[in-house]
Write a structure and sequence with these properties.
Radius of gyration: 24 Å
Helix content: 40-55%
Strand content: 15-25%
Largest sheet: 5 strands, mixed
Oligomer: single chain
């Protein structure tokens, strides 16, 4: 069995959605496709596909193997392109991950422009509210907000001043108790969100406080997405805590106002990270060169209240 070719067959089956469709794409008989997948399963000692007369799905082992097959085949294609002189011709599938809001509102327009400029590249954009393991999950480039604990990552800084802000609707603030210190939040309604604290917010030390200040609360409403938190706060349900770029447009329009600006934690950086100890492929290098300056301008604009869209 040519294991590398069998891996290509397996990935084609997944991409095409069936054994017969893979056979048509590869110009092989359905029997040949079935034999290739079966040979892989025998070699691995585990089923990769669970098949019925009506459907086909990956097994747990198949999910893990598929991710690594895609990575291996992509790396092989990149190596062949480099040897063949394709260093300056980006091609293939670029897999990206980013937090949902910044990925949708900031990164995606830049990715759209990149794809228009590079017709040989296609992309997968994963909007995930969690860090990804680039190697295990087959991600080429990830955008991360916050300090990077792993010093082995290859990182390009694209923003340096993302703040964690507390915001509320002016109409809510007009009738609510005044807010001078974080402790004053105890008398307020809170729109809480999973990633920013469901029952407490932490603020840095202040005058007369030797350490960090923690404010606990029972939320008026608890949501699991940034847009929901922003919408409820605009509706007057209370104060919410988000990243500054989450609220930038609503603040610019006057729908939300920032409170406790002098008590915010230190700003956070934004990085694009790529897999460590690996020569970036032409498409990854091209994307970093294209996206980094545009992301820097986008985050800088948001920090001053400007628009977040793709910039030239």
């Amino acid at each position: 069995m040519d294991r590398l070719e069998a891996m290509r067959v397996f990935v084609t089956v997944l991409d095409e959605g069936s054994l017969s469709a893979a056979g048509r794409a590869l110009r092989r008989s359905p029997a040949a496709i079935t034999r290739a997948v079966a040979a892989l399963e025998r070699y691995l000692g585990a089923p990769l596909l669970a098949r019925t007369t009506r459907a086909m799905r990956l097994t747990k082992a198949g999910e893990l193997y598929a991710t690594n097959c895609r990575r291996i085949l992509a790396e092989l294609a990149d190596a062949e392109a480099l040897v063949a002189g394709g260093r300056e011709t980006p091609h293939g599938v670029l897999t990206l991950s980013a937090p949902p809001v910044s990925g949708q509102d900031i990164l995606r327009p830049i990715l759209d422009s990149f794809l228009k400029a590079h017709p040989g590249v296609s992309a997968r954009l994963l909007l995930l509210d969690r860090p990804v393991n680039l190697v295990d999950e087959g991600v080429d480039v990830a955008m991360r907000v916050g300090d990077l604990p792993d010093s082995t990552l290859v990182a390009v800084k694209v923003g340096a001043d993302v703040r964690r802000v507390v915001v509320g609707a002016p109409r809510y603030l007009a009738t609510a108790p005044p807010i001078a210190t974080p402790g004053d939040l105890a008398g307020h309604q809170i729109v809480a969100m999973d990633n920013f604290g469901v029952d407490r917010w932490v603020f840095p030390a202040g005058a007369g406080s030797p350490g960090a200040r923690t404010v606990t609360f029972a939320p008026r409403i608890l949501v699991n997405s940034v847009p929901a938190a922003i919408a409820s706060s605009i509706a007057g349900l209370g104060l919410t805590r988000v990243y500054s770029y989450h609220a930038a447009e609503a603040v610019r329009r006057g729908e939300l106002a920032i409170v406790l600006a002098d008590d915010e934690p230190a700003p956070l950086p934004v990085h694009l990270i790529v897999q460590p100890a690996r020569l970036p492929s032409p498409r990854v290098r091209a994307f970093l060169d294209f996206a980094a300056p545009r992301l820097r301008r986008a985050f800088a604009a948001l920090s001053t209240g400007g628009p977040a869209g793709e910039t030239a």
